[in-house]
């Protein structure tokens, strides 16, 4: 999950899957895309799969994406919302 904090106890969550997806919105993510931490294998961020959740359900943080990768994800979300 890509997680962004909101005011209060909620977080905005974006799905990440290790499965190969034929999704025009999918963004590949590998170890090089992390400022710190990592995933166990190359994966795909699914910016078309957003939801909010209570921060209490987030068990741990696997890492933090680089500024460039977060900008790519953000741009794709904006593209989806403005289409």
Content-based structural category: alpha+beta
Name of the CATH class: Mainly Beta
Mean pLDDT: 89
CATH fold naming: SH3 type barrels
**Through-space gap between termini:** 24 Å
Radius of gyration: 13 Å
Classify the beta-strand content into a percent band: 35-45%
Overall number of structural domains: 1
Number of helical stretches of at least 4 residues: 1
CATH architecture: Roll
SSE pattern, N- to C-terminal:
EEEEEEH
Report on the structure:
The chain is an alpha+beta fold. It has one helix spanning 67-82, and strands spanning 2-5, 10-17, 27-29, 34-37, 43-54, 63-65. The chain has one domain (2-82): SH3 type barrels, CATH 2.30.30. The radius of gyration is 13 Å and the shape is globular.
Give a concise summary.
With 83 residues, this protein is of the alpha+beta class. It has one helix at 67-82, and strands spanning 2-5, 10-17, 27-29, 34-37, 43-54, 63-65. It has a single domain, classed as SH3 type barrels.
Q: Can you tag this structure with a few keywords?
A:
single chain, 83 residues, alpha+beta, SH3 type barrels, two-stranded antiparallel ribbon, 6 strands, 19% helix
Question: How would you summarize the topology of this molecule?
Answer:
Blueprint: E1 2-5, E2 10-17, E3 27-29, E4 34-37, E5 43-54, E6 63-65, H1 67-82
Antiparallel strand pairs: 1-2, 2-5, 3-5, 4-6
């Amino acid at each position: 999950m890509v997680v962004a904090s909101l005011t209060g106890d909620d977080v905005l969550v974006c799905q990440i899957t290790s499965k190969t997806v034929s999704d025009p919105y999918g963004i590949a993510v590998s170890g090089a895309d992390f400022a710190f931490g990592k995933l166990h294998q190359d994966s795909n961020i699914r910016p078309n799969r957003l939801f909010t959740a209570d921060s209490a359900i987030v068990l741990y943080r696997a890492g933090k994406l680089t500024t460039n990768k977060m900008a790519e994800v953000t741009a794709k979300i904006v593209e989806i919302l403005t289409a």
